[in-house]
Design a protein that fits this description.
- This protein is an alpha+beta fold.
- It folds into 2 domains: about 45 residues; about 70 residues, OB fold (Dihydrolipoamide Acetyltransferase, E2P), CATH 2.40.50.
- The strands form 2 sheets. It has a 5-stranded antiparallel sheet.
- A hairpin with a 5-residue loop joins strand 2 and strand 3.
- The longest helix is centred in the first third of the chain and has 31 residues.
- The protein is elongated, with a radius of gyration of 23 Å.
Length: about 120
Amino acid sequence: MKKMRDKKNDAFSWKGSYITINKKSLMLGIVIVLFFVVLIVKNSYKEESLLENGLTAKAYIYNIKIVGGKGISRSFYRFNVKGVEYNGFVDNENYSIGDSISILYKETKPSYNRDLFHLKNNY
């Protein structure tokens, strides 16, 4: 296949192919992909950091909802740090209302928290 340049609309095309990629579309696609890669890496780093440096607390499941088209069971939990109540959630079908679970939270920002079982099994 021979690559040809279409000077009329500044696009790339391949001889024998109906695919034409505009430079702006290509750049937009690359930016979108890079955005999601950075987002995934950043989130992964934050959760690994929480696993290494987070503080442990007991939380209690107070509500369970079925979410999404696949019927995922989302469990909502509450916990206290220095007399202040915080909330979180985890997608786990094995929890029931009233269950106590261990969570990890960031010392400087307890609102950033995760289920310890989930973190250990996913990282």
